[in-house]
Design goal:
The complex is a heterodimer of chains A (333) and B (224). By secondary structure, chain A is of the alpha+beta class. Chain A is 13% helix and 20% strand. Chain A contains eight helices and 13 strands. In chain A, a hairpin with a 4-residue loop joins β4 (144-153) and β5. Chain A is globular. Chain A starts with a helix and ends in a 13-residue tail after the last helix. Classes of the chains: A alpha+beta (333), B mainly alpha (224).
């Protein structure tokens, strides 16, 4: 596949040699979390070798919020495949849109402590051969986790570069055996006012729901993230598991997922329902289709002063544009 | 009396400059979060709107309380509102856009919320320029008419804020309600009632003699 060849191109001596990406580790749950040596997609995560988690530092306690990047890797030297530096742990964990904990960017970091991200159940429903309710750790156990550096482009025209850790969404979807009717994948955030105080106000129609076309969900870049910077996801970033779809605006990447449902028709999604003129179902990053209230041609990469041009599909055009061939992206924004 | 006027002026200067000072310090010490530029632009605009509504509240306050001299401070508050609005605009042009004139022009032409904000600033500009004694004298009665544009500017500024937010309209709605209240206080009916009430009070105080206090603020106070 073309996209894998491209991102496997080594950039310098530090790069993990070809093939290491197969070195993905099985997801083995929180207790032994630190022993999970990061699996690598070479080029996507270009630093450090994935060799065996022996150098791992002790895991944080069960309810302890991670206080910074993991110690087992020199994060400062990690770059994206376009050689972009990472945004800092502080940027990634203090500037969040997660309205379930308040609408201010710093609200989630302040308020998300009320979320109990373990134990966690995930419900698989709809057009699947293996529906059911699973404990999240059991559910993820058979899968391989990978570290992947992605750009995150918010619909508000700011962006970051983030080292996620997670499981390819397609691995999970294939495992639950979609039926021949399945055409869409819907993912839903927890609905619980006690744990998510922001839901007491109907800023949005809770619970938060997002969805992908099945072929989008099966794209290898779509990730179910369980960690960031080598740590478990902090609550404000969508613990214990969130979607990351790097070629779409950030609001598609639904957080704290409790339900995955496969459907034969396009579901109603939260932002598209809230303001249909402004947010579409596809929400692909596209510099030539402006938001009605601001331009999408440029973005502010957090930490940079000048705005930079926004790339088609957030720079993943080679990998994903075939998903949309023949589609009018102005119509299907 | 003179001392008190100066004291109140000094307080207004301090109160109006403190938010800008704190913002500058926070910016220089990198305490404005991951997106400091957005924070600077947002806070300057917020204060511009607060000060603008404050300046518009002065005339109703004067009518309600009968504290006529309060009108002496209206110009100062209004000029600070303009100063913050200008800083807000400059922060957008310099920090946010870095003089990308093409994008700025496109923003103004194609984004209603930016057009609303820019128009609000444009309306404030002649008010700031004609705030000097000389212009007040020269314009005479037309000065009052001209300066009622401040209401249009406040309405456009509030609309600008309202259109900017994504989903949580709570705060802009507070501004809309404040503005609506201020406009309501300007309606002839409310004005008449307030004037009557003041007259009655004054008559009680003066043992039946009519108050000499003026109720018409369209003629600017001499020291404006």
């Amino acid at each position: 596949m073309v996209w894998i060849r491209r991102i496997q191109e080594p950039r310098d001596n530090e790069i993990t040699p070809y093939g290491t990406w197969l070195n993905r580790r099985h997801f083995i749950g929180r207790s032994a979390k630190a022993a999970v040596a990061s699996a690598l997609v070479p080029g996507l995560l270009s630093a450090c070798d994935a060799e065996q988690g022996s150098a791992a530092t002790p895991a944080a306690g069960p309810q302890e919020a991670p206080e910074g990047p993991s110690q087992d890797r020199d994060w400062a030297s990690v770059r994206s495949e376009l050689d972009e530096p990472l945004n800092s742990w502080e940027d990634v964990t203090t500037y969040n849109n997660f309205y379930e904990f308040g609408v201010g960017k710093d609200d989630p970091a302040k308020n998300a402590q009320s979320l109990r991200s373990r134990p966690w159940s995930i419900s698989i429903e709809g057009e699947v051969g293996k529906p059911g309710v699973y404990d999240l750790e059991d559910f993820l156990k058979p899968h391989l986790v990978e570290d992947r550096v992605y750009r995150l482009r918010c619909v508000e025209a700011w962006s970051m570069v983030i080292p996620w850790r997670g499981v390819p969404l397609r691995d999970v979807i294939r495992r639950v055996e979609p039926t021949s009717n399945a055409r869409f994948v819907e993912l839903t955030t927890l609905l619980d006012e006690e744990q998510m105080p922001g839901q007491r106000r109907r800023v949005l129609d809770w619970p938060y729901v997002e969805a992908l076309r099945l072929d989008e969900a099966l794209h290898p870049l779509a990730l179910l993230a369980t960690g960031v910077y080598g740590r478990d996801l902090p609550n404000q970033n969508g613990a214990p598991m969130r979607l990351v779809v790097p070629w779409k605006y950030g609001f598609k990447s639904v957080k704290s997922i409790v339900k995955i449902r496969l459907l034969d028709t396009m579901p109603r999604t939260t932002w598209a329902a809230s303001a249909p003129r402004e947010y579409g179902f596809y929400a692909n990053v596209n510099p030539s289709v402006d938001h009605p209230r601001w331009t999408q041609a440029r973005e502010r990469r957090l930490g940079e002063f000048r705005r930079r041009p926004t790339a088609m599909f957030n720079g993943y055009e080679d990998e994903v544009s075939s998903l949309y061939s023949g589609m009018d992206l102005r119509q299907n924004f | 009396m003179r001392n008190r006027t100066w004291a109140i002026r000094a307080v207004i200067w301090v109160v109006a400059l403190v938010p800008a000072g704190l913002l500058l310090v926070a910016y220089l010490r990198d305490q404005l979060g991951a997106n400091p530029i957005e924070e600077v632009v947002h806070r300057l605009g917020w204060w511009a709107l607060v000060l603008l509504l404050t300046s518009l509240a002065i005339t109703p306050l004067r009518r309600i309380t009968g504290w006529n001299r309060i009108v002496r401070y209206r110009r100062l508050v209004g000029l600070f509102a303009f100063a913050y609005a200008t800083a807000h605009l400059l922060a957008y042009v310099v920090l946010d856009q870095w003089f990308a004139w093409g994008f700025i022009a496109e923003d103004i032409a194609e984004r209603p919320f930016i057009l609303a904000g820019f128009s609000a600033w444009l309306l404030l500009l002649p008010l700031a320029l004609t705030s000097t004694r000389g212009w007040i004298r020269r314009l005479g009665r037309r000065w009052g008419a001209l300066h009622r544009l401040a209401y249009a500017a406040a309405a456009l500024g509030t609309l600008h804020f309202f259109w900017r937010v994504k989903a949580d309209t709570r705060e802009p709605i507070v501004f809309v309600l404040l503005l609506a209240m201020l406009l309501l206080l300007r309606t002839p009916l409310v004005n008449r009632k307030l004037a009557e009430r003041r007259r009655r009070r004054a008559e009680n105080r003066n043992g039946g003699h009519r108050s000499a206090r003026r109720s018409d603020d369209r003629i600017p106070a001499p020291d404006l």
